[in-house]
Every structure is written in C-alpha cells, then in structure tokens.
Amino acid sequence: MKITGRIAAALLTCAALFTTTVGTASAANLDEPRLKDIAMQIVSSAENSSTDWKAQFGYIEDIDDGRGYTAGIIGFCSGTGDMLDLVELYKSRKPGNVLEKYLPALRKVNGTESHSGLDPNFTKDWKTAAKDSTFKAAQESERDRVYFNPAVAQGKADGVRALGQFAYYDAIVVHGDGGDKTSFSNIRKRALGKAKPPSQGGNETTWLNAFMDARVWAMKQEAAHEDVSRIETAQRVWLKAGNFDLKTPLKWKVYGDSFSIN
C-alpha cells in the first residue's frame, strides 16, 4: 500500500501518542505503596539513622537546631508549627488525649526553640501517645498533607519520576515550604535559573542535577544542615546511575552510615 503524506503524518502521530502513553504508564511514581515505603526508609536513615521508620513514632529530642523538640516519623518540630498542627489533629480525632494539655504551650513556643510549658513531662507523654494507633495515624496523615503529597504533586507536574519526586520530598521535609530563601519553593526557583524540568522541555538528569545543586546550597546556609551527604552519597548516586524509578537494590550512605534496601 502506498503511504501518502497525510497517512504517514497520521501514523507518526499515533506512534507518538503510543510512546507517550507507554512512557507514562511505565513511569514510577513515589505514591505507589512500595515506593512510598522505600521513601520513608530513606528519609528515616537520615533523620533517625535507621531505615525502620515505623519505629520512629515515639522518637523525640532537641537536636539543637533552633527548632525546639524534633519528634515522630518525619521530624515534627515544636518551633515550626507542624507539631502544633499534629497535636491539634490528634485532639480532633481523640479528645482528652495525653498531649492535648500541651496545646497552649505549643502555641506559645511556635517560632522559637523554647521548651517553656513543655518540660519536664512532654517527652514522656509523647512516647505514651506514640503507642496509640490514633496518634500514629495522625502522624501519617500530617506527613502526607504537609510534606509527601505536595512533593509528589509538584514532581508529577514537573515531569520527574520517583527519584525526582523523592528529591522534592526530602527537601520539603528538611526545609519546609515557607517563604524563606531555603524553602522548597525557593530551592526549586533557584534551580529554574539553571535548567528546565521535563514538563518544560528540559532533560530530567540536567534538571535534577540543578535541583540537587540548589538543595546543597540551601543545606549549607545552616550549620545544622551543612552535611550534604543525604544528597551527594544518596540521591546523586542514584541519579548518576540513571535510577529514576528507584529500583532496588538501593545502596547509599548518610552522615557516614551505610544503608541498603534489597
């Protein structure tokens, strides 16, 4: 059969649509349950020196980073507002819980490193609450609402796969997404000055390198975060290997410790 120019054009269009559809279907997204669990393990390796993220609901300490108490599966902080939001959610789901009495103090210390009104029993009561399935569920809900879901949504909008979505997620966990110069949005804006994401016609590797460079810059603005191994000996290693889908086995190092997921 003779293929006319019009038929040839139609065939090329169909081929392009088929390729796009297959590519989209096969692209790994971080909100797939298996990959979400992997993401939790990687973040936990940096935040808690353990991949056992489900053991961290009761974690709480002041790590001297100016944010007061850091606690739970994602490092909710008494000085940044996310711990306050979490305890308020816990109250709404289980009135009269052991942490509810600390709400006035959490409102007062928000934005500071103070423990005023929290000591001496807050850490003990946090650990008690962490045995409650309602509090565990509240932690997961707030993790998703504040950190995980926004990161994955932005990653999908930018056309990056699981690795890029994870890079975004880790950045939001550490820096938040407020208005300061090291927030996630401003890290991304800094990267946009160097490269374009795939959704804007850019190369995924080039874009993620630019984002990671901007993230390294942000980390080094603060003494508490000047160790950038969670990027350079983890995320960047997978990027160099072309592991955009975070396929296992994964091996990485954070703060000098070695981890793996088979």
From TrEMBL:
Domain of life: Bacteria
Record has Signal as a keyword: yes
Keyword Signal belongs to the record: yes
Listed InterPro entries: Glyco_hydro_46, Glyco_hydro_46_N, Lysozyme-like_dom_sf
Signal peptide as annotated in the record: 1-27
Cross-referenced Pfam families: Glyco_hydro_46
CDD domains: chitosanase_GH46 (cd00978)
Keywords carried by this UniProt record: Signal
Protein's recorded name: Chitosanase
Originating organism: Lentzea cavernae
